[in-house]
């Protein structure tokens, strides 16, 4: 079968031929119908030897949906919960593989992250516990829910307590994750949602996603956002970029006691010290992906019509083009590979 393979560190992925996997006891073979691209794929591709605990060669793709290919559930349409843990620790026992206690011993983080992933015609899943039924959702809509959707959902869930009536949430970065975060905030909180990005088309996407206001990232953005947040500042800022400029903006607009959620891997730094200049009582979280129960909640939200993923389709054969567009920041919403 064809698969997008990371053959070694420092090499661009290639579309190659590998044997179609044969499931053993307990494993499930999924015929892939959609596989999303993520900036983390670029981090993996660009990683220096030894920077990640993975051992190439392996197939990329950690955002996967398709159809069970063999066994009693053959034909069932599913999305794959991507973080694959040890399966035995207290975290994995409740589907929190994203926070597996043995994460550092495994040599992988999940599907397409050290284990063979879903940018291929078939995917071997180690256990049915990693599968969530998607009913009548299209695979193109479902695949991004497993990473972009789940990561955004878990980020919002962590601060939902602070987002009741008369509150404001700021979303920095309205790309594959940010546009879903806007929708999730609107669907699951009472907060007023403000969006920030450097691209006009991203602000248009934010508006289509339900943001109350959008503003370009400029020198006076902190002032604009504080004014839009009633002059007191934002109750939560979700930063899906995570560079020095956006982390700095986040702490400038946070209300005392506000929540900063750092999701983006832009490498931005924040000096945390007392005494210091940070908002009194503010709290910082760095969520990572989400749990399998949370993925079930995201799928239910999408099936209710509350979530729509903006996608750009590419045939599997054009994976290199898709990665190039992602790297240049030219993808609107989420890029998804489909068979072809
Ligand atoms: C996966 C593996 C490592 C870092 C970040 C990620 C995210 O893309 C998962 O949502
Ligand atoms: Zn990802
Ligand atoms: Zn575990």
Automatic annotation (TrEMBL):
Location of the Alcohol dehydrogenase-like N-terminal domain: 25-134
Cofactor(s) annotated in UniProt: Zn(2+)
Chain ranges of the Alcohol dehydrogenase-like C-terminal domain: 176-301
EC numbers on record: 1.1.1.1
CDD domains recorded: arabinose_DH_like
Catalyzed reactions: a primary alcohol + NAD(+) = an aldehyde + NADH + H(+); a secondary alcohol + NAD(+) = a ketone + NADH + H(+)
Domain of life: Bacteria
Entry keyword set: Metal-binding, Oxidoreductase, Zinc
Family according to the record: Belongs to the zinc-containing alcohol dehydrogenase family.
PANTHER family: ALCOHOL DEHYDROGENASE 1-RELATED, VACUOLAR PROTEIN SORTING-ASSOCIATED PROTEIN 11
Protein name per Swiss-Prot or TrEMBL: alcohol dehydrogenase
Species this protein is from: Streptomyces vulcanius
Native organism taxonomy: Bacteria, Bacillati, Actinomycetota, Actinomycetes, Kitasatosporales
